[in-house]
């Protein structure tokens, strides 16, 4: 599992009635234009500006929300709607009161320039055509408490309410296309068995369908892999295009070496996969189960990639080897405590090279990395690794000097007496 550490947050500025031209500390909405100008909607005017330059427009009016389309801003307040052009000119827009109900709560503008207003009902206003479309109980919009709204890329309105959850509303002339694959391709067969089903919402029925290079029906079948493009036209000549990519069910995997082996199982490699269901399971020949293997020995390795549909493929990689030079160090574990004793022991430590290692001691005392029951003297070790590299080390096993004693005569003994001293 990977975690990304985020930088700590800090407050860099606070705007209020004490240090700016704000007449109220109640902020209802904030909008920043593409040119960097900030509009702050309050219940006592609209604060506009950037940096240290701010102006308060329309003091004493309660502003609810701000949105933009092109170079024009749309500003909503209590019972009023304004349009602000690129030069900052404010133009009032007369809203027919019969098309809204109660308190105005939020505003959004779609990609066609249509203004959406939330009150006790939802109202769409096509400014260019001067046309309204209302959504209330008659259109199954039963909430009178809208909290927020926004427009998606298809021009549909997502409306959050206080009491009835979330509504998705579409302008009556907008077309929404949904394409689904009902029968995915099978990796165990080369037959073109995929089928696409189309659902259309919005616009004015009946619809006509035209698939690129194919039929004119809503649903098509017996399809191989590839991209399919559908154009739908409604009775009023509104046109919408949709696309669907039928994936190749076979899995393709490419393995890349990340680092060589150093003579130990420490080589690494990773795999890039595509096709299939896209949800992959990895199994390396050393039982590592991840997309990246980090315990690979030098030589050929095999990876199996499978998906939830049971499709699988194998890929291979040859891990190269980057050996460090072979070296050996002999350590005296214990010296002999007395001359002529055989209690000494030595241990050899090998670095670099490639296992397994062969040990050749000069005394022929053994072929392991440790020797015991040794007499004092000089010892030489030659180590050979699996690639033929050799390294030699020498050591002297010491013992204390041989014990000796001498006698000094102090006083000779008298005749027939034992009184001599030495």
Automatic annotation (TrEMBL):
Transmembrane segments annotated in the record for this chain: none
CDD domains recorded: PKD
Name by which UniProt lists this protein: SprB repeat-containing protein
């Amino acid at each position: 599992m990977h975690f990304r550490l985020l930088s700590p947050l800090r407050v860099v500025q606070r705007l209020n009635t004490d240090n700016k031209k704000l007449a109220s500390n109640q902020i209802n909405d904030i909008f920043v234009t593409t040119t960097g100008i900030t509009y702050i909607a309050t219940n006592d005017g609209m604060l506009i500006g950037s940096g240290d330059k701010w102006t308060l427009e329309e003091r004493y009016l309660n502003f609810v929300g701000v949105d933009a389309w092109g170079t024009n801003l749309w500003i909503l307040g209590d019972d009023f709607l304004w349009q602000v052009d690129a030069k900052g000119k404010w133009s009032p827009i007369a809203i027919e009161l019969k098309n809204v109900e109660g308190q105005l709560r939020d505003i959004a503008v779609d990609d066609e320039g249509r203004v959406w207003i939330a009150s006790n009902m939802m109202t769409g206003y096509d400014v260019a055509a001067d046309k309204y479309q209302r959504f209330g109980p008659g259109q199954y919009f039963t909430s009178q408490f809208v909290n927020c709204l926004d427009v998606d890329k298809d021009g549909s309105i997502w409306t959050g309410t206080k009491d009835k959850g979330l509504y998705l509303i579409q302008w009556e002339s907008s077309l929404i296309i949904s394409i689904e694959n009902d029968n995915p391709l099978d990796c165990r067969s080369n037959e073109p068995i995929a089928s696409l089903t189309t659902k259309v919402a919005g616009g004015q029925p009946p619809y006509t369908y035209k698939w690129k290079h194919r039929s004119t029906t809503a649903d098509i079948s017996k399809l191989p892999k590839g991209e399919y493009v559908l154009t739908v036209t409604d009775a009023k000549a509104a046109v919408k295009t949709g696309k669907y990519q039928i994936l190749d069910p076979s899995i393709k995997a490419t393995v890349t070496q990340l680092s060589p082996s150093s003579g130990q199982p420490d080589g690494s490699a990773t795999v890039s996969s595509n096709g299939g269901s896209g949800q992959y399971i990895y199994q390396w020949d050393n039982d590592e189960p991840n997309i990246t293997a980090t315990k690979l020995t030098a030589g050929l390795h095999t990876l199996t990639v499978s998906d939830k549909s049971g499709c699988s493929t194998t890929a291979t990689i040859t891990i190269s080897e980057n050996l460090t030079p072979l070296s050996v160090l002999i350590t005296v574990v214990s010296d002999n405590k007395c001359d002529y004793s055989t209690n000494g022991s030595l241990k050899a430590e090998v670095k670099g090279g490639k296992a397994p290692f062969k040990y050749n001691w000069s005394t022929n005392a053994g072929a392991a990395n440790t020797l015991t029951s040794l007499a004092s003297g000089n010892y030489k070790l030659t180590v050979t690794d699996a690639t033929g590299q050799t390294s030699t080390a020498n050591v002297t096993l010491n013992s204390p000097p041989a014990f000796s004693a001498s006698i000094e005569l102090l006083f000779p003994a008298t005749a027939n007496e034992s009184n001599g001293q030495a």
